[in-house]
Request: fold
Amino acid sequence: GVLRANQNGPEEYGFRGNAKNYDLNRDFIKSDARNTFAFAEVFHTWQPHIFLDTHTSNGADYQPNLSLISTFPERLHPMQAGVLTRELLPALYSAMVAAGEPMVPYVNTRKGTPESGINAFTDLPRYGTGYAAMWGTIGFITEAHMLKPYGKRVAATRTFMHVLDSLIHPNKDKIVALKKAAERGAAEARTFTTRWSLGDEADSVTFAGYRADSIRSEVTGQMRIRYNRDRPYTEKTAHYNTHLPEGEYELPAAFIIPQGYTEIADRLRANGIRMRTLTADSTAEVTATYITDFETVDAPYEGHYLHYNTKTRTRKVPLEFRKGDIVVLCNQPGNRYLAHVFDPASDDSFFNWNFFDGVLMQKEYFSGYLFEDTAAEILRRNTMLSKKFEEKKKSDPDFAGDAGAQLDFIYKNSKYYEPTHMRLPVFRVEN
Reply:
């Protein structure tokens, strides 16, 4: 291929999109590709303690052949986080120096060049290491430098694999015990952080880079960056690697999901989530979640118009469920995964990935001239609604002058308004 303009070889290489033009390293939650279902089967069969994904980077120019992303520790079980930050990572960096392949943290620059500081990568569950972390698996991604000769990239990646193996093998008992503790902790926990942001707290790392010159572009005539390999440097650089919790989600005792949502059941099943089905029609009091606000990206991302800034409200309601509807008990090692996919505000929730967009469109409406008499009768019979209606007209001049909005207000507070509009088809059973 010739599609990777920034890459120094090899002569032939693949393409980021798969047969359906999906980037598989954005697909771990939404699972649009059959490849991803196959990966999930392998992952949950082996249940790895360590996950390694080997990549080639893009971005800034610098001296080492290899950079490293690791699962950000705040998302792991506290004991795993401690071992990762105090033992595994320092040992990996030291051992790579001893092996003649010094590496740096993945170069995600804060303000254009590495001297401005390096931001840790926020590996959401859509990515491989973020996905692995939901299951108590410590994840690493190697990023071989795109501008280095291909042979050096391969050699550096292979060296890291040998170094990683040499470090985890003698510590296997501890690593195995930590994953078991993480699985137990997840099965017993009810509240999980589902949204994170990168903080402004930084430590420092020794960075071997090249000075960036500002020169005039021959193409645009504007000033551009050029990394000058004649001006290497080695100095301390700020590394912003602390993630702060931005939102939590408390799991219920169980979820009930209508059986018609087969694509949800397929993904839960592929991820080893234990489910059962109702054996008879029944009525239960559940907590229903309603979408009150959200935003949507302007252009599709990996085949989806992702939602974000999602807001909700909840209400306890008695609902009828059918034989065959799906019940998911929240007492299993996959609890963290359940929190991420069912918290509507989570970056990688099933809602934000458009699985429930059907509820966002109202299916039934009213004809104003026909509903007028019905609306008047509703207000006569419902004094509380009539009072709210009059108060809203007094407090909202726009509403008071908009006959359609007034009829819509009455309609949406009547028995005629469809209960499924804006209501997520994932119901919480609290007890």
